[in-house]
Design brief:
Blueprint lengths: L1 E4 L1 E3 L4 E5 H9 L4 E4 L2 H7 L10 E5 L1 E3 L2 E5 H9 L3 E5 L4 H4 L5 E4 L23 H16 L3 E4 L1 H9 L4 E2 L19 E5 L4 H6 L4 E4 L6 E2 L2 H12 L11 E5 L5 E6 L4 E4 L3 H6 L3 H14 L6
Parallel strand pairs: 1-4, 5-8, 5-9, 9-10, 10-17
Antiparallel strand pairs: 2-3, 3-7, 6-7, 11-14, 12-13, 12-15, 15-16, 16-17
């Protein structure tokens, strides 16, 4: 792998690497490996992780002519003292090698029509960015490492495991604003006896931000779709992921699998953590602690 040091843009508060730098590595038949410099850790206010600390893969987003990742996400992982493996799109399977955990961030990108309950057509067009999510998820599942999915990342995990998405909120007839810049958009109710409740504690209701226009189909719809597919009653259907929380209008807000170490969050806990919300930091601690454990295989 060829090391590329991430740069920092103070106005937008992102760490980034130019496409030209990544392309130069590819041209030289090298696998690009963006890393944080010592100066970046000083800027974040955390020491560099110790040798032997778990490696958490973080799939990067896009910003113009560069790969980028938000300050708040990097800060929360740096707080947990893990080695951050920044993952680009063309060499993601190689960059995922030896990762002990995976964080899939949110973002806006095209997804396969086959992921939805209401596909516009039956084609399976997959964008480069979506393919990177798919490959990272499959690598993590194959290697049995924990996954923390956020917003679109959470939806991608669910869809890749066979659950269906709704394209918009029209079918839910909701008055709740789910795509907004408000820091407190709506409350969520965390179900009892779930992994998420055990991570966050006994207070089951609190307010979250919300910046998504698509959603995971609610449990009832999901069961009905699976029953139709299997030609059986919904009582005999089991889903690959459990539902952990929902908004007052029934919109799924968290899901996952404790056995497979998968945790998916529809809101953006990194932004809430950045304002001092200690409960949201527990989600990143969960990923760090699970990443430090031996693989189940």
């Amino acid at each position: 792998m060829k090391i590329i040091k991430l740069q920092f843009e103070p106005l937008s508060k992102i760490f980034y690497v130019l496409d030209s730098e990544v392309s130069a590595c590819i041209y030289e038949s090298e696998t690009p490996q963006p890393i944080l410099s010592e100066d970046s850790y000083e800027r974040l206010g955390y020491p560099m992780p110790a040798v032997g600390a778990p490696v958490v893969g973080l799939l990067m987003g896009r910003n113009g002519d560069c790969y980028s990742v938000d300050w708040n996400l990097v800060s929360e992982l740096a707080r947990q003292r893990v080695n951050i493996r920044f993952i680009t799109y063309h060499h993601c399977t190689l960059q995922m090698k030896d990762c002990n955990g995976l964080l899939l961030p949110g973002g806006s990108f095209e997804s396969s029509e086959l992921y939805y309950t209401d596909p516009h057509n039956d084609t399976e067009f997959v964008s480069i960015r979506q393919m990177a999510y798919i490959l990272c998820i499959r690598c993590a599942l194959f290697d049995d490492i924990p996954i923390l999915g956020i917003c679109a990342g959470a939806q991608m995990v669910a869809a890749e495991l066979g659950l269906k998405l709704l394209r918009n909120f029209n079918s839910t007839e909701t008055s709740i604003e789910h795509k907004t810049n408000k820091s407190k958009a709506h409350c969520v109710d965390i179900f009892s006896d779930t992994l998420l409740r055990r991570i966050l504690g006994e207070d089951n209701m609190f307010y979250v931000n919300s910046r998504h226009s698509e959603l995971l189909a609610p449990l009832k719809i999901q069961l009905e779709l699976q029953a139709q597919k299997l030609k059986c009653d919904t009582r005999f259907v089991s889903l690959p992921l459990d539902y952990y929380a929902e908004a007052p209008d029934g919109t799924p807000e968290a899901w996952g699998s404790e056995a497979r170490r998968i945790l998916c969050i529809q809101w953006h806990p990194e932004d809430m953590a950045a304002t001092g919300d200690e409960r949201m930091r527990l989600l990143f601690r969960w990923l760090a602690e699970e990443s430090a454990l031996p693989r189940h295989q």
